[in-house]
Amino acid sequence: MFQGSGEIVVDIRLKRKDRTYRPTDILEGTLVVNTPEAWDCKSVNISYSGVYLSIGYHISAKIERGMMRNDLSKKIEFMVEVPGEAASPATEVPFEITPETLEYAPKRYGRQRRLRPFRVSGRLHSATVSTSRPLTGEVVVEESERPIKSLEVQLVRVETVSQAQGQLREATEIQNLQIGEGDVCRGLVIPIYMVLPRLFSCPTMVTPRFRVEFELNVIVCFAEAEGYTATQNFQILLV
């Protein structure tokens, strides 16, 4: 069942409902698709739960027992995993965070000149990640005159659903991982190792009706009273 701007229900009707099926038997029947509008399906999507979009699967069984007895029914939800495409050869993505590279550097508040020098470098081992593998990389604090409070890695899911009135877009943090606490040692290589949350992530999907994409933020939190955060954003592809 697909739930988003519309709903699609696939009804599986067995050819013989009065037969007891064993584990090795082949089920025969028909698929009945109920949808309020035209729909084209080229593949089965992985089970997924989001804000505007949810993809779920369940089996409903019903036994009709005659006029004088109540029918028996049971509904069970199950998870679907679809083997993804083979990830392309890993290409490292280097990055560097400095006051000059900040997209939202606080120039408008007149504090640009007072930003103390800092430099955080690192790399992602790949921007294309299999959902069954961890996202890995490393971060190094090369220098920072300000004390650092923490280093964090944030996974963000971006859902876009097309409707007649326009597009709905929602960015949601689905996982935040602290990889460094306190004023970490300068020059120390800190590993990034993030296991993707199974239910709230899925392979990147781009269709005419909806899109599910993912971003990764590397965040440096400073400890001073007027401290701020410095963030580096990456577009990542899940397969």
Give a written overview of the molecule.
The chain is mainly beta and 239 residues long. The chain has two domains: 2-78, no CATH class; 93-238, Immunoglobulin-like. It contains no helices and 17 strands. Strand 4 and strand 5 (54-55) form a beta hairpin. The radius of gyration is 25 Å and the shape is elongated. The protein starts with a strand and ends with a strand. Mean pLDDT is 79; it is low at 1-5 and 105-113.
Supply database-style keywords.
5-stranded antiparallel β-sheet, disordered N terminus, mainly beta
> If helices are DSSP runs of H or I spanning 4 or more residues, what is the number of helices?
0
* Number of separate strands: 17
How much strand? over 45%
Task: Show unreliable segments.
Answer: 1-5, 105-113
What's the CATH topology label of the largest domain?
Immunoglobulin-like
Specify Rg, calculated over alpha carbons.
Answer: 25 Å
Mean pLDDT: 79
SSE series: EEEEEEEEEEEEEEEEE
Compute the number of structural domains: 2
Termini Cα gap: 22 Å
What structural class do helix, strand and pairing data support?
mainly beta
Helix content: under 10%
Task: Give the name of the CATH architecture of the largest domain.
Answer: Sandwich
